[in-house]
Amino acid sequence: MRFLYQKWDPRFDQSKSKPAFDRLNEIFQQLLYISSGDVGQALKWLTELDKEYNLTAEYDNYGIADFIKELEERGYIKYDAEEVEVVITRKMERSLRTRALEEVFRNLRKGGAGQHKTAHQGKGLEREPETRAWQFGDDANQFDSTGTLLNALRNSPIDQFSLTENDLRVYETDHNTSMATVLMIDLSHSMILYGEDRITPAKKVAMALAELILSRYAKDSLEIIAFGNDVWKVSIDELPYLSVGPYHTNTLAGLELARHLLQRKKHANKQIFMITDGKPSAMYENGKLYKNSFGLDRKIVNKVLNEATQCRKEKITITTFMIAQDPYLQNFVREMTEANKGRAYFSGLNKLGGFVLEDYVRNRKKNV
């Protein structure tokens, strides 16, 4: 007998069985996330990786120049004459979102038919085992034929079969609802401090969530806002290009804008997802930026807690995804969560995507 250890045998390395373009494109797209959509920088890094790890050595007559040419032929990159540089196209932006969704959502349990389930029963898509009496307006596809016939037999006169409205039974179904979400992304300087890249996973999660909603939850809405010293709206197409700036963290302005955006929505459920790694350290006061980077400033914190309470009054749930481990920052998140009656996740970067998408799909409170 002979044993073959496939895991370490290069002949069974699945990555090397892929076409050259597919293998290099996977690496290139990861580099685009990190470079905030800078094609030139990503290609420079790819060239350096090829030099160090011989990425193209196994492919005959195929090099980085061939890969760049194929990227352009397939419509993933184009030459911008005005900016005199190479940029990614909308096709690549969509590909980045799709890849992010596949990466984050790969191991999560798939939801129902593109809707969000609630604890309520009503008109929906997924049948429950329980039945009830038929009511006017019920979907005929949900009739319980067995229960209906048994009722008719039970209520019919001897030697005569009759079916009346009172005999009809229908299955209960999950009530499906729509969701309006505002995703807040922290772009303060702390997102890249201490040699840890926190903004890249945050962007990938935002792209995955955007693609999930666009492809599976068409009736839902998603608004994305970035916050630092100030706050501003971000389109889905702009997500790959987000980068950290020399900003403080104006959580208050972010929550205020998110609440105002949700006030305009007519969806049954409204929520705010906030991805952050730091404490609120700035706010506007009388038109000027009040900031304090040293510890938790109660003046700022109290304003944030008041805004969280206002969101609760307007039935807007705040879910905070905290990617920092400092106990005093976690205590602030707990305080804000209590004020809003919302949810909080204290997540490492490798689990951030799972928490965000799983919470969105399941749409229920969880303790992690």
Automatic annotation (TrEMBL):
Protein name: VWFA domain-containing protein
Annotated ranges, domain VWFA: 181-279
Signal peptide: none
CDD domains named in the record: vWFA
Organism superkingdom: Bacteria
Pfam families for the chain: VWA_2
Listed InterPro entries: VWF_A, vWFA_dom_sf
